[in-house]
Amino acid sequence: MEIRVYINGSEIPLKDKTLISGPGKYRAGRLLYFVLKALHQMPRLYGVTESDPIAGWKRNFETKFASILTSNLEPGKIRLEGTFKLDLEKFSISGKVNGGTIDVRVELNQIPDNVYPGLRGMVQVDSFYFSGLNRPRPFLVPGSKDGILAGFHRFLVLQTESASGVPKTLGIVSEYINSIVLPQGYSTELRGRRLTTDEKEGLFLDGEALYNVEPEMLSLLSLRLSLDMAQEGSVLIVEDPEAHLSQDSLKEVKIWLDRFKGPLILVTEDSSFGNRVIRF
User: Fold this and answer.
1) How many Cβ atoms sit within 10 Å of the Cβ of residue 169?
2) Which of 20, 37, 147, 230 is the most exposed place for a label (fewest CB within 10 A)?
3) 39 close to 235: Cβ distance less than 8 angstroms
4) 8 phi and psi, to 5 degrees?
5) pLDDT in tens, 86-108
6) Beta bridge partners of 28
7) Are strands 101-108 and 91-98 parallel, antiparallel or unpaired?
8) How far apart are CA 173 and CA 117, in angstroms?
9) CB–CB of 269/257 below 8 Å?
10) CA–CA separation, 262 vs 231, rounded Å?
11) Residue 20: enclosing H or E segment and its boundaries?
12) What distance in Å separates the CA atoms of residue 178 and residue 37, rounded to the nearest whole number?
């Protein structure tokens, strides 16, 4: 089921590569990330008995979606402003985020037939709307990725799929660091230099702790790790992919990004990354 996404009234295609630019590009890109994250985290809604299952499901979805958005934004004091809409064919989700205030509305474009009352009807309605629903996982790579990687290199080797990660109070930092889960014994090579893990000390590049590594190599490593973590079909949102990179490094990064199998949103003023640009 195709998703059509609108941020502040502009559609952002979730196919291939799109650039977003302009003075409001960071807030637009982050609003896109958190809205898609809320959709990805939405649970099934069939555990509550309602006399009117259709109206009940709609109301429960609005409440839960707003609650998930709040839980992701509030701990880190992430302040976003803007409107959004997700057109999911059978129904659409629209809303407005203004600082700490979040408003969510659901419109049902299709209605299931012959719905039973009570719990049985709630299961029926929930199955109807979730059937075939595409909920891709979004990944956010902030513009300050190199500094974040240097500062949190020791934590990365402690993460597992079951770990809670760094606290959400760290805001965008936690969104980035918690998206990178390295397996035991992880290592990779980049430009003839080897990135390795030490269970107690963190990540090292040719035996050097990452906080001593030059910014250009840190930027390359942060992009490489993010691309490795983002599964095929995920939505990857990268802020300032050109930051701290030479022309040779830019060419290398563009090859990596072109190989990514999923929607790619680049938040940048550098038009050399592509010609499909949306301004905010």
Assistant:
1) 11
2) 147
3) no
4) 50, 40
5) 999 999 999 999 988 999 999 99
6) none
7) antiparallel
8) 46
9) no
10) 8
11) strand 17-21
12) 13
- The alpha-helical segments, DSSP class H, found in the chain are 25-41, 53-73, 118-130, 145-151, 153-156, 172-177, 215-229, 247-259
Task: Tell me the pairing of strands 235-239 and 138-141.
Answer: parallel
Asked if residues 193 and 205 have their Cβ atoms less than 8 Å apart, the reply is yes
Look at the block and give the residue holding tokens 């299952």. Answer: 53
**SS3 call for 58:** helix
Give the strand pairing for 10-12 and 4-7. Answer: antiparallel
**Which residue reads 């956010």 in tokens?**
140
d(CA 17, CA 148): 25
CB of 74 within 8 A of CB of 167? no
Token pair 């291939």 is at which residue? Answer: 16
Give tens-digit pLDDT for 196-236. 988 788 899 999 999 999 999 999 999 999 998 898 889 99
